[in-house]
Each structure stands twice: as C-alpha cells, then as structure tokens.
C-alpha cells in the first residue's frame, strides 16, 4: 500500500479503506477463533488476552468507518487522525499477542502468525507517520515498576479505590482526585506518567493538551458500557485510548502497557 493517498480520488480512498479493513478483520477473526479455543479448554486468562486483541481490532474498524466513511467527504486531516487513533490499538494487539505467546508457550501458532501478518499491513500504513512494528515473538510487555506514576480522575470513591488497587498490583504508583479541577492543580506540581480519566470529566483534555509539560501526557478514558460512542468522539479531542467499566485487570494491564511503552 502506497504511503501517498489522494483524498480527492474516491477509488484511492476505497482501496485504502479495503486494505485496512481487511487487516483489522483478520485480526478480529483469528483472535475470536483462538479465544473460543481457549475458553473450551478452560484457559480463561488466555481467552481474556485474545478478547482484548479482538476488542482493539473492532475499535480500529469503528475508527476507520468514522474517519474514512463510504460516500462522504474525507477531510485532509483524516489520515493523520487515523494513524494517531490506530496506533494505540495496534500497540494493544502487539502486547496481547506477546502476552498470549508467553502464557501459552506458543499455542495456536498458525492463527497468531496470521494476526502478525495483518499487523505488518497496519504497520505499512502507520509508516506514513510513525511505524509501529510487532514485538519480537516471546517478548513480554513490561510496565515500568518503580518510577511510573498514574493519576486516576473519577468522582466515584469506589472506582478510584479499585483502580488504585489494580494499578499498584501492576507495579505503578497510583494517586487519585475526584474532580478535573483538583487533577489539573495536582499535575501542575506533581508530575505523573499516565492519567486515567472518567469520560464525564473529559473537558479537562483541552486544558491538558494546551499546557506545556502536560500536552503529551497519555490519557486513558474510563467509560461506562453505554458510553462507547461518546468515547470515540472524545478520542478526536486528545485522549489516547479508553477502557470500559467494570475494569478487567488483564485488559487494563495491556492498555496502559501500550501507552507507557510509547512514551
């Protein structure tokens, strides 16, 4: 796939859409096959890892449909936005495959191999901005242990406490605030490596992205099960990724691992 796409030509847009959709469909399809096999064998943790890969692929398809719609005008910013929004999904899939291979000692090698081929196609597209390469087989996505700090922003006491527990179990130091105002005040004098932000407080994103020293801080949105569409809209304004409540520990680990590895 050529790195140059003429957005004035519908046939080129359609070709790119088909190229990316085919790669994402392959990832989702093979991940679902492997997930079902893992469930049948009672390997719940392996199944959850593959569900995370499939979920990232499905989100990529939704983003593709939103930014490269059929029979609609495509803006000049569509390709940079598409690369930017696909990147964390590709990172999550890469991390999930590496974790799965280590946990299962190379099970389902044929299916995983086909998913890696699809990742190579996505990497070819990403190369127009910043190439995303699959991790070497057998490598484990590691979270920084002693130095990484995460800020949780949510007005629900129970959610803040649960996320702090999950983050600390993953090796991060966690701090929390109940409001966007308190979070911004803390960030001005207490730097962190990652922000987990409730989607209802997403208004602080504009301030965050306009503040020197904080503009590049990774932000993971926390959404309810019925807030998926809202999260996709917020991603266009500066969030890096999102995760749905109730939070699954394995899913959270993969997603924050991908974000921290990009810093």
What does this structure look like?
Helix 1 packs antiparallel against helix 2 (44-67) and helix 3 (78-104) packs antiparallel against helix 4 (109-126). The protein has nine helices and five strands; from the N terminus they run H-H-H-H-E-H-E-H-E-H-E-H-E-H. With 263 residues, the chain is of the alpha/beta class. It is globular, with a radius of gyration of 18 Å. Helix content is 57%, strand content 9%. The chain folds into two domains: 10-126, Four Helix Bundle (Hemerythrin (Met), subunit A), CATH 1.20.120; 149-261, Response regulator (Rossmann fold, 3-Layer(aba) Sandwich).
Could you outline the blueprint of secondary structure elements for this entry?
Elements: H1 10-40, H2 44-67, H3 78-104, H4 109-126, E1 149-153, H5 157-169, E2 173-177, H6 180-189, E3 194-198, H7 204-209, E4 219-223, H8 228-235, E5 241-244, H9 249-261
Parallel strand pairs: 1-2, 1-3, 3-4, 4-5
Helix pairs in contact: 1-2, 1-4, 2-3, 3-4, 3-9
Q: Which band does the percent of strand residues land in? A: 5-15%
Please tell me the CATH architecture of the largest domain by its name: Up-down Bundle
Helix content: 55-70%
Strand order of the largest sheet: 2-1-3-4-5
Poorly predicted runs of 5 or more residues: 129-146
Q: Helical segment tally? A: 9
Total number of domains? 2
CATH top level class name of the largest domain:
Mainly Alpha
The span between the termini is 28 Å
Here the CATH topology of the largest domain equals Four Helix Bundle (Hemerythrin (Met), subunit A)
Count of strand segments: 5
What order do the helices and strands follow? Answer: HHHHEHEHEHEHEH
């Amino acid at each position: 796939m050529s790195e140059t796409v003429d957005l004035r030509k519908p046939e080129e847009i359609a070709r790119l859409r088909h190229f990316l959709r085919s790669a994402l469909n392959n990832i989702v399809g093979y991940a679902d096959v492997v997930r079902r096999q893992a469930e049948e064998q009672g390997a719940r943790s392996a199944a959850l890892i593959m569900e995370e890969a499939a979920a990232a692929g499905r989100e990529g398809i939704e983003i593709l449909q939103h930014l490269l719609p059929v029979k609609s005008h495509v803006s000049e910013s569509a390709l940079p936005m598409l690369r930017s929004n696909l990147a964390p999904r590709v990172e999550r899939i890469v991390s999930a495959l590496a974790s799965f291979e280590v946990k299962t000692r190379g099970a389902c090698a044929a299916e995983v191999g086909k998913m890696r081929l699809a990742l190579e196609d996505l990497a070819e597209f990403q190369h127009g901005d910043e190439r995303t390469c699959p991790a070497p087989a057998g490598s484990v996505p590691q979270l920084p242990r002693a130095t990484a700090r995460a800020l949780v922003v949510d007005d629900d006491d129970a959610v803040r406490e649960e996320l702090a527990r999950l983050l600390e179990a993953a090796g991060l130091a966690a701090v929390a605030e109940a409001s966007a105002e308190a979070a911004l005040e803390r960030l001005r004098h207490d730097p962190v490596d990652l922000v987990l932000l409730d989607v209802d407080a997403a208004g602080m994103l504009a301030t965050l992205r306009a503040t020197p020293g904080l503009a590049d801080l990774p932000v993971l949105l926390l959404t309810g099960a019925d807030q998926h569409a809202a999260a996709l809209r917020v991603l266009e304004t500066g969030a890096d990724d999102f995760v749905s409540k109730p939070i699954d520990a394995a899913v959270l680990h993969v997603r924050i691992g991908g974000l921290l590895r990009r810093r």
